[in-house]
Design goal:
The structure is a homodimer.
Chain A (H helix, E strand, L loop, with lengths): L8 H8 L3 H7 L8 H14 L5 H8 L4 E6 L7 H14 L3 E6 L6 H10 L4 E5 L4 H9 L4 E4 L10 E4 L1 H14 L5 E5 L5 H16 L4 E5 L4 H14 L6 E4 L2 H13 L10 E3 L16 E3 L2 H17 L7 E4 L2 E3 L13
Parallel strand pairs in A: 1-2, 1-3, 3-4, 4-5, 5-11, 6-7, 6-8, 8-9
Antiparallel strand pairs in A: 10-12
Helix pairs in contact in A: 1-2, 1-3, 5-12, 8-9, 10-11
The first copy, chain A, binds a DNA duplex through α2 and α4.
Amino acid sequence: MTESKPTTSYDVAQRAGVSQSAVSRCFRPGSSISPKTRARVLAAASELGYHPNAMASGLITKRSNLVAVMISNLTNLYYPEVLAEITRRLSDHGISVLMVALQAESDADAMLDQVWRYRVDGAIIAARLSPEQLTYFARRRVPVVLYNRFGEGGAVPSVCCDSVGGERLLVDQLVAAGHSVFGIIAGPDDSYVSQQRVSGAQQRLRELGRDALVVEGAFDYDSGAAGLRSLMALTDGRLDALICANDLMAIGAIDCARVTFGIDVPQNLSIVGFDGVAPAMWASYRLSTIRQPVRRMTEAAVSMLMERIEDPDLPPEIRTFSGKLIEGESARLAPRTGG
Amino acid sequence: MTESKPTTSYDVAQRAGVSQSAVSRCFRPGSSISPKTRARVLAAASELGYHPNAMASGLITKRSNLVAVMISNLTNLYYPEVLAEITRRLSDHGISVLMVALQAESDADAMLDQVWRYRVDGAIIAARLSPEQLTYFARRRVPVVLYNRFGEGGAVPSVCCDSVGGERLLVDQLVAAGHSVFGIIAGPDDSYVSQQRVSGAQQRLRELGRDALVVEGAFDYDSGAAGLRSLMALTDGRLDALICANDLMAIGAIDCARVTFGIDVPQNLSIVGFDGVAPAMWASYRLSTIRQPVRRMTEAAVSMLMERIEDPDLPPEIRTFSGKLIEGESARLAPRTGG
DNA sequence: ACAGATTTTGCATCCGGATGCAACAGTGCT
DNA sequence: AGCACTGTTGCATCCGGATGCAAAATCTGT
């Protein structure tokens, strides 16, 4: 038994003996429909396997109920969780996700073309877009929430984890525990998160009268290892505290320290990361890091977006969340106060 | 300068001094348009920032250019790469991804409702759906490709990595290397992949006159550790070869072996996994495993789907890919022939 | 320059649901 | 019964592009 032609609201209307309008109103919350008619229509609909056509309704209501979620490097361990959370929360609002996975910066325009064609109601962006691309959203009045990014001098709503505060926390602990030779492995230098984390750490180190060598990484495992090798060379092996701009590089550095240099972490070298991804908690690493409150951040991102879809004129807002220090065992930290 | 009202093909037509039909034909490959008109239209379109409305065109062509990608546990380390690959490949075909992240089995129906509403042209499914849900796709004539699943007795097109063959390879090597007490940590027992992997391993062990204890896991890190503890208890610590149904459990088991039991892996216990996820290659693990050819598999999934979108009457087809043995260092394997 | 072949163009209509408006039914009250 | 009022319903129309068809424009060959 194959339903060859898809059922429309007219089919349902005919079967239920009502007008097409009535069917439409049944599936549209807030419309005026008598319980009796509603029941008849819903019965007919389920017999026919009817599902309202989102394209037709989007066409006339100008609401696609689609939100673009743009993520640059999905393989970053941190983002899958974010994506899953966001998708789930949006679907609670009856909204589906148009997935946009960006590889290089280059293909962003081609991907954005898709976004425009589908007339998404909004976008959550965890990818690097150019200022022009961002303002284009504004020009088209498509609400946007940036995730761990910062755009247009604060004119774009964003949800961030407090990188500066997190790094200060880590630095305080490392300094208090008596470390002396500091190294930092940054992320790609066009990354806002990396800039924040690195400068947060540097600033606090300076405040405490310390200094740090910085090398650039790429937020991935290999560059953590490579970064450590560079820093070991630069410090003649005297490095004793390593701050990595994310967990993945910290993990790469830990492995490299142990395997390549035979260094005991944290006895002879403290390594800290940032993010709180799942592998950071694994027994081989027990990374000392700052865990981003993903649940609260995604919830904020989604609710900020929904508010702006309802009222596009809401002023931009930047919500910053504090990360939680995970003591772990990859760094010698100051003994807990009152512990 | 805010474009308050979105531009339509009529606006572009007016500006270019042509009819709306001409504009439409400019954006539809294969339509008859003179180069001169085309240029005029494209100029006007770009001046106005025009993007065809995918909902309007989908409504009339009955092609949404949307494909649902359904993934159950995004946090599984293996799927993000699959998702990124699939998204990229689909977008090469001008198709966007409607992301469906399933948490529990329970909410599948609610999520599917979204899928039906958007009249997706097809679906790639890496999630457990009920037979009814799967046949519903067929009834609605929406082509589907399963990813590492098996449906309806082979009546649904699928792309799989050869679990049985992979496990045989691993077992052969483990047996040849002289292991004697085998344990298996399975995945959830409703997982097709787990069934295949476990029975593949068991079958080959039996052929070689060996036997294995099996405990159930959940495809995650913790259940790898828990599984190892169970097996150690069951074997009085004599376990010397552990086959895990995926890498993540193998990693959990390695950590548990080293940290909880102080066992040297692979000297006193060989552990193998399956998938070839990124962390499996990390220096702390160097997991001996079977790497799924993700690129080739996603390419196959996408092209199989595209073919069936063009011609929905193509017969089902199951394409199985062989994984590649990664020797790693988490298991003592047979010396390579000819090595 | 002209008939005929070919391409380009515009017109009108369609896709499937949403909604303002007017007609209609049902309710409560005098 | 009559009237005002709230609650339902159907009609007609609209959203924005796609496309069959016929008219118009361009090209071909002589």
